[in-house]
């Protein structure tokens, strides 16, 4: 069957069906890109382990040696983080296990990952949101060992709900900063910050690593002052990329928290989409007092 082109979607008469079809393909492509990026990182790590020089790989890929170093390190972590590694089955071998791997006693584990529960306050206290990392501060206070890993920084088409929060048309290219958050080495959240490129393009917010000292400070350094925010919470099944990245078991859902922050002049400044593994979270709700943050 011939793969559909943008012109094919333009021919769909019903505008809602047209938008739905395009959104579905965009989500599928995001999954594909994430999987290919993981495979590329693993290939780079394998090449480095085999003794291929970093500068030779960089020339072949058309990237900087520093970027090759980042991919090699991430690729090594990807291999180490393969599901079922604790039982001695990884990669394709794990895929062939229909019900999960057997432990030393022959019993099947209840889940693919150790049990962990993180509290995610709604709304977040301003002092926590204004810290170097909301997650690192919040999880650390709960006696959990937190860590984070940058997954992607770059432009991508805005989904419907992100576009509405940023007040742009769906499909408009926006800056995405996506990271994976782990508690005791268990993936628990995918947090993606979205910014309008016509406001933040070419600024330090586009840097490929974490913004120092904090993202909040980086936003304020560009002259933005917090006005108000709106948070929306939705429970839903995960898309493929989310299920794979969070190592979710079949049937597990996610909780999506979308926080849209606006400057004191009404400019849409920062939209944060946090996709939480539902079985690994509780959401205490409390009244927030004091000044808020982006």
TrEMBL record:
<protein>
    <recommendedName>
        <fullName>UbiC transcription regulator-associated domain-containing protein</fullName>
    </recommendedName>
</protein>
<feature type="domain" description="UbiC transcription regulator-associated">
    <location>
        <begin position="141"/>
        <end position="282"/>
    </location>
</feature>
<dbReference type="InterPro" id="IPR028978">
    <property type="entry name" value="Chorismate_lyase_/UTRA_dom_sf"/>
</dbReference>
<dbReference type="GO" id="GO:0045892">
    <property type="term" value="P:negative regulation of DNA-templated transcription"/>
</dbReference>
<dbReference type="Pfam" id="PF07702">
    <property type="entry name" value="UTRA"/>
</dbReference>
<dbReference type="GO" id="GO:0003677">
    <property type="term" value="F:DNA binding"/>
</dbReference>
<dbReference type="InterPro" id="IPR050679">
    <property type="entry name" value="Bact_HTH_transcr_reg"/>
</dbReference>
<dbReference type="InterPro" id="IPR011663">
    <property type="entry name" value="UTRA"/>
</dbReference>
């Amino acid at each position: 069957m011939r793969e559909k082109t943008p012109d094919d979607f333009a021919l769909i008469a019903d505008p809602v069906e047209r938008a739905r079809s395009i959104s579905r393909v965009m989500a599928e492509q995001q999954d594909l890109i994430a999987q290919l990026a993981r495979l590329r990182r693993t290939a780079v790590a394998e090449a480095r382990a085999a003794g291929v020089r970093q500068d030779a790989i960089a020339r072949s890929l058309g990237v900087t040696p520093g970027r090759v170093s980042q991919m090699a390190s991430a690729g090594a972590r990807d291999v180490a983080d393969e599901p079922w590694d604790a039982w001695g089955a990884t990669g394709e071998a794990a895929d062939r296990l229909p019900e999960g791997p057997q432990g030393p006693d022959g019993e099947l584990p209840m889940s693919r990952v150790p049990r962990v529960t993180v509290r995610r306050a709604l709304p977040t206290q301003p002092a926590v949101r204004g810290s170097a990392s909301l997650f690192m501060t919040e999880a650390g206070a709960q006696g959990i060992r937190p860590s984070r890993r940058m997954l992607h920084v770059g432009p991508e088409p805005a989904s419907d709900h992100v576009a509405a929060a940023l007040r742009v048309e769906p499909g408009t290219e926006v800056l995405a900063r996506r990271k994976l958050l782990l508690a005791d080495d268990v993936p628990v959240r995918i947090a993606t910050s979205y910014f309008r490129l016509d406001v933040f393009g070419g600024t330090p917010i586009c840097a490929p690593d974490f913004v120092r000292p904090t993202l909040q400070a980086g936003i304020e350094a560009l002259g933005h002052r917090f006005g108000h925010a709106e948070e929306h919470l939705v429970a839903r099944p995960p898309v493929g990329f989310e299920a794979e990245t969070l190592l979710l078991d079949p049937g597990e859902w996610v909780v999506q928290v979308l926080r849209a922050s606006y400057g004191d002049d009404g400019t849409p400044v920062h939209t944060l989409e946090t996709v939480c593994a539902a079985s690994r979270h509780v959401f205490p709700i409390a009244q927030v007092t004091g000044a808020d943050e982006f």
